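User: quick one
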Amino acid sequence: MAKMGRPRTFDRQKAVVQAMYIFWEHGYETTSLSQLKANIGGGISTPSFYAAFGSKEKLFNEAVQCYLETYACVTDALWDDEISPRDAVELTLRRSTKMQCESGHPKGCMVSLGTMSAPSPEFTHVAEPLAASRSRTLQGFVRCVERAITMGELSKKTNARSMGIAFNSFLLGVSILARDGVDASDLNDSITELMKLWDIELCQSK
Amino acid sequence: MAKMGRPRTFDRQKAVVQAMYIFWEHGYETTSLSQLKANIGGGISTPSFYAAFGSKEKLFNEAVQCYLETYACVTDALWDDEISPRDAVELTLRRSTKMQCESGHPKGCMVSLGTMSAPSPEFTHVAEPLAASRSRTLQGFVRCVERAITMGELSKKTNARSMGIAFNSFLLGVSILARDGVDASDLNDSITELMKLWDIELCQSK
DNA sequence: ATAGTTATATATCGATCGATACAAATGTAT
DNA sequence: ATACATTTGTATCGATCGATATATAACTAT
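Assistant: Done. Structure below.
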């Protein structure tokens, strides 16, 4: 049974993806409704927008969910226990960096850059899912280090939180460097450098 | 000889500092004129604002200059040849992190977070001085590594750009972590971790 | 005292912000 | 054919955006 009523003239899901790109590029507050409307299905009217998405804020929420379910999956390895902790960390760094630098969408990570997406006090709640994702990713890095310690791969003296923060902070910075136009190959070389941090802490007794 | 004409009812320099804090917190585009006016000298009128600063953009430029001449100086060690390269890098990381986490002003670094200060194409030129400062800081880190190689402190095999990017990317990430409320002590511990990167590359022949 | 200079206060500019009212258009269900 | 559901187009809402015109107030220079 098909839907009742007059059919939509644009693809709603494609519209969410398009909105995601715009919010990713400019952030929540700086993106205007006219901007969104103009880039959905070759341009839609105000009532069509509100009928389909409810409000700018609700569309942003959908766009964030869309990002988390697609592009943000580059960090999934952090919670995959079938991958060694070291590989999980390196894979995450390389996958995320590659994604952040590839063409076809805005540079950098929407979650990281989302720190400044809704800076006004009245809108901080809007970017809350992004903050939650950042917190989760940090925990993911710490988790990997803890797993390595438990597995006896890293020394018991290793400070898991410190190492987790170090890897996470580097990756957050990649978003800014990608926006500034630093090459993916240069960033990859610096990942190789950064991973030496892991190898120092390798358990000698192995 | 004192100035002619009716005297100003507010301190212009204090106003620039106050504006700097607001732009630092919210970015250029998201900061409104009313917000600036309300926070200058207990509130000023629109004509007073324009008479004193010319425009929102010009005030932003002054605010950025003010930041670069004060808070941004935490990275000055990178160009100080009287400090050993390693100390220069560590000092910069610790000073900047301390500054970014201290109270009395917005968390994070105005230069780093300025990546999303003016995301609209029509305003990108406004945040250009911030981008230039980020580029300069990156070069400062690279410079320190190069200096260490020249001095024979680091191995000649060291990839200066990769290491520079690694330290710089970490520091850029600190801005986001500081905004997210991560403790300064935790960040400091991760700096201790990060500096091990340097010690791995130490020249063995010394 | 008078002229010249600068900042002030009041009022308002056109443009854009996010969001709605209303009625015509277009589909399905019976 | 009719009723119902949903989207569309046109017009517009009050609020705020950054910025300005005009006239008055407060100071210095002569």
